[in-house]
Design brief:
Helix content is about 35%, strand content about 25%. With about 130 residues, the chain is an alpha+beta fold. The model has no long low-confidence stretch (mean pLDDT about 95).
Length: about 130
């Protein structure tokens, strides 16, 4: 099997993955996934598409991810992995689509407006 290259985005995170057949090793920015994501929840998020289609331990993933926080990065990787799995086998698409792993989450941080403390928070109003 050749190397499959896909991209995933979430908030300001961008993840590029290179997937090839192997024994299930996942490296994120040249570190093991356990070292990069110490939280078990974030590791689970990354592995969700593989677990859903019963392909855990079948592919080696090399991930380059940049921008955003850990949660956004994990979800960007999840999208990229799901896209790669559909490239490998078209039969994986319906269950991944049903779970929502192929949908790019469009929510971004709202920009701060001038004359306000935050995006929506106005200064305290004083009637008197």
């Amino acid at each position: 099997m050749e190397i499959i290259n896909t991209i995933g985005r979430r908030k300001t995170s961008v993840a590029r993955i290179y997937m090839q057949s192997g024994n299930g090793a996942i490296t994120v920015n040249n570190k093991k996934i356990e070292d990069y994501f110490p939280s078990e929840i974030l590791q689970t998020i990354v592995r969700q598409p593989l677990a859903l289609v019963s392909e855990e331990g079948s592919y080696d993933l090399k991930v380059n991810v940049a921008g955003g926080g850990f949660k956004g990065q994990a979800e960007a990787i999840r999208l990229a992995v799901a896209r790669a799995l559909t490239t490998v086998n078209a039969e994986h698409r319906p269950p991944l689509k049903k779970e929502g792993f192929l949908t790019r989450d469009p929510r971004m941080v709202e920009r701060k407006k001038y004359g306000r403390r935050k995006a929506r928070r106005a200064f305290q109003f004083s009637k008197r």
